[in-house]
Amino acid sequence: AKDPNDRLGIKLSIITRQADGSLTSSSDALKINVANYISQFKSWSENINISDAKIINLKVTFGIISDNITTNGEILSNCFSKIKEFFDIRRWNIGDSISQTLLSSNIQRVPGVIGIASISFDNLVGTINNRSYSNTSFDISAHIKNGIIRCDPDSIFELRYSDFDVMGAVL
After folding, report:
1. Dist. CA 138–CA 62, nearest whole Å
2. Contact criterion met (CB below 8 Å) for 131 and 162
3. I want to staple 95 with a disulfide (CB 3.0 to 4.6 A). Which of 58, 68, 152, 153 is the partner?
4. In degrees rounded to 5, what are phi and psi of residue 92?
5. How many CB atoms sit inside 10 A of residue 86's CB?
6. What local confidence, expressed as pLDDT, does residue 1 receive?
7. What share of the chain is helix, strand, coil (3-state, %, to 5)?
8. Model pTM?
9. 10 Å Cβ neighbour count for 112?
């Protein structure tokens, strides 16, 4: 992306995925190595500003309507799996936005779900119940329009602790 502070500059945001799959800031050594590699391909007048992408940790809360045939526990378990699959960090890139319609569609395909009553998102910051989240605050309501939660081009969404950061209920 163009660097807004340098008319000849390029801003490159990078992120590192740890062994457990969670995201973290990249080391200075990695940034230097990336800069050295890219320098082979840039013109002499271009400046490259490599920085850490901001990690936006999310909590997803949803309510579904069941067919009253399938057990609620089975339906919720399958919905949790669909949401975890949707937010699998290997499928996301820096700057990707969230489509609430696409997430709802995935949940709707779970056997026993006949409707989606609600889906909401919260930004998790700092330490909550001994779980560490990034310090990036993100105003979801300011970034949502027409069912799309728009991510800043230098940020990435993460469902950091999927066993704790997804809450659901059968209504």
Report:
1. 20
2. no
3. 153
4. -110, 150
5. 18
6. 61
7. 25, 35, 40
8. 0.90
9. 19
Amino acid (one-letter) located at 26 = S
| Alpha carbon separation from 121 to 27, 57, 77 (Å, rounded) | 30, 10, 19
Residue range 72-97: average pLDDT? 97
Reported confidence tier of residue 7, pLDDT bands at 50, 70, 90: low
* Burial class of residue 14 (count of CB atoms within 10 Å of its CB; 0-12, 13-18, 19+): middle
Token readout for 140 is: 């979801």
Structure tokens at 84: 């975890």
Residue with tokens 């399938």: 70
Distance of CA 164 to the CA centre of its chain: 15
The percentage of the chain sitting over the pLDDT mark of 90, rounded to a whole number, equals 84
Q: Find the distance separating the first CA and the last CA of the chain, reported in whole Å.
A: 44
